[in-house]
Amino acid sequence: INIITKAIPTIIPTIYNTSMSLISGFLNVIIAIIVSVYMLIDKNRLIFNAKRVIYAIFGQKTGDKLLHTGSECNRIFSSFIIGKLIDSLIIGILCFIAMSILKLPYALIISVIVGVTNMIPYFGPFIGAVPGILLLLFVSFKYALIFTVLIIVLQQFDGNILGPKILGDTTGLSSFWVLFSILLFGDLWGFAGMLIGVPVFAVIYHIISQLVAKGLRRNGQEEMLVPVSYTHLTLPTT
Using alpha carbons only, how large is the chain's radius of gyration in Å? Predict the structure, then answer.
């Protein structure tokens, strides 16, 4: 009784804060879904009004450029998100099937974790493997070892075969910029930043590339737009 009495002042605020956070997050998700539905219903009118405002402010020529850039950004973002969702769903299903065949426990919950974290490029499969390995270690070291090998096989299959087939080069980013975007937005926005960091940075990269290309054309340096090889590229000395 004394232990419980001393623990109550700490436990009750924790339970209250956690409950309020869960309720707030749930309400935000519901509101976001409702707003998204209304936006989709009124999509054509919203797009038309947005175009009117852009042309009214920037004129025909600049407006066309802005709309083209917006269309490209939408293509990059939507292609990556949709492709990664399909890729992660397939990996989650394959993980569940393989765990069921190997008779590993907690197949469903672990497969869901693996599928969700697979949305994160490079680090996702390994982040998702950690909870599964720890969970299986409580059951048997053999199960944890088998699951580790399974994750490595799935990661290789996803990275070398499935991912390139589904995603292709939707972002146009090199491996360095993909890692940079994951680390940057992960530090800024946490787990959500790691999920959307790559397409967001790809959009920023695309816009900056367009501005750089415009500057090169303005300065008469069109040969710098598409270098044949970076190893043979030399910058002007003047």
Answer: 24
